[in-house]
Amino acid sequence: MSVIPRGEPAGLDDTDDPRRWWALVIIALAQLMVVLDATIVNIAMPSTQRALGISDGNRQWMITAYTVAFGGLLLLGGRIADLAGRRRTFVAGLAGFAAASALGGAATTSGMLFGARALQGAFAAVLAPSALSLLTTTFTRPGERGRAFGIYGALAGSGSAIGLLAGGLLTEYLNWRWCLYVNVPIAVCAVVGGLVLLPAGPRHPGARLDVPGALLGCGGLVALVYGFSEAEPRGWTDPLVLALFAVGAALLVAFVWWQARAPQPLLPLHIVRDRDRAGCFATMTLAVIGMFGLFLFLTYYLQVVLGYSPLRTGLGYLPLTATIVVCSTQISARLLPRVAPRLLIAPGLLLAAGGMVILTRITVDSDYTTAILPGLVLLGLGMGLTFMPVFATATADVAPRDSGVTSATVNTSQQVGGSIGTALLNTIATSSATAYLAAHLPDPARRALVVREGVVHGYTVAIWWAAGVMLLAGLVAWVTVRAAAPAHGTRGTPLPRDARRP
């Protein structure tokens, strides 16, 4: 007979809280805000750069300041949610995120903007794991859990594309500042809804934060994410980049060593030793490497090569967004209670890789309907099949006391994957374009056309690599994720397996 430790509820019984679906709306709203903020400023970057006089060398900090703080502090934010209570950290994260967004929107100097973006990332690191752990502990029955995670996975998979669309609309019809101000009313609504609808959750007054673990783990992640972000402009062999990688690796090795000995570890190692969960973390990292790189190239391709406006570029992503949402909520959510997760994840990644292969056919004058749209639809189907079961499987069967840090680990996989994908695939694209130009530029009469062809060639080579990474993610998922269907196995049942630990 399984025993649940005192003070650790097995999870809410869905029949006890009729407001749980309204709570899901609040959780989903907060998650969407966090995810889209990683890309919403992308389309506004040229306008922001001109308005604040930001140099070309520093403009990347509009993105990097957010991603470094977010990715580096997630483990700490997740553990704080476990100790202080998920609703408290959720509301605090929302309030802080809104304040940081208002500060960024009112920025008058580049330093003020970069600082606000870093604050956004720090509060997002508290907010994101709180949101996912609230979802995990609120929906425990396989059927309803599938629908809830279908909505969450749809937002996680399409949030970046929604951010590009929102950035185009706000930049074209208002100005770049509204790409930050828009978070304030959303956060205010979510705070009010969170206070009214979300359960307070247990606190653990006797527990202590693992300070050495926080310093080692967060320091290692910050160094790693910062290293990948600097690898793009500086190059992989730059001394600073190599030093950041070395420091990050050393700190993370020390972190693992300490977690095995700490009395109250920041990241209990039994969470990552679980084969299914570790497979989901690896799958998420690899999938996001390919997806984030594609967003970068496709955005520049549509605006720079095809001459689309920011708004038209954002609208170009609508089919991808719609397909992810429909597939996550209407296909994955219905199938996950009945089939093993890997039977959704692996085929989904195969479809996503197929969509990317279609996108390798783009040229300097491709037609959107025939050359781009089919690839985006196929990619959306694949991501819709992938993200929802990855989130659901990675967070299933976790004791409530560890749900925050487990959720943070899933989000960390996303952030690290995004940083690697942006840096690695951009390097591949740049080097491929340079090689193409060196081979084709001797003819000066075709210089302008060859330059455009070289840029597109670099994009297509990088997209081929992204497709390969997607296939590798599918293989990893197929080999490592062995969980049974939630309705017939232990995953997704109300009793967390980790709760059996004394």
Automatic annotation (TrEMBL):
| Compartments in which it is found | Cell membrane
Topology versus the membrane, per the UniProt entry? Answer: Multi-pass membrane protein
**What InterPro entries does the database record attribute to this sequence?**
EmrB-like (IPR004638), MFS (IPR011701), MFS_dom (IPR020846), MFS_trans_sf (IPR036259), Sugar_transporter_CS (IPR005829)
Q: Which UniProt keywords apply?
A: Antibiotic resistance, Cell membrane, Membrane, Transmembrane, Transmembrane helix, Transport
- The Major facilitator superfamily (MFS) profile domain is annotated at 23-485
Q: Which domain of life is it from?
A: Bacteria
Stored PROSITE patterns: MFS, SUGAR_TRANSPORT_1
Give a yes or no for keyword Aminoacyl-tRNA synthetase in this entry.
no
Q: Where are the transmembrane segments?
A: 21-41, 61-78, 90-112, 118-137, 149-169, 175-197, 209-228, 240-258, 279-302, 314-336, 343-364, 376-399, 420-439, 459-481
The answer to keyword DNA repair applying to this record is: no
The molecule here is called MFS transporter
Q: Which organism is it from?
A: Streptomyces gibsoniae
Instruction: Identify the taxonomic lineage of the organism of origin.
Output: Bacteria, Bacillati, Actinomycetota, Actinomycetes, Kitasatosporales
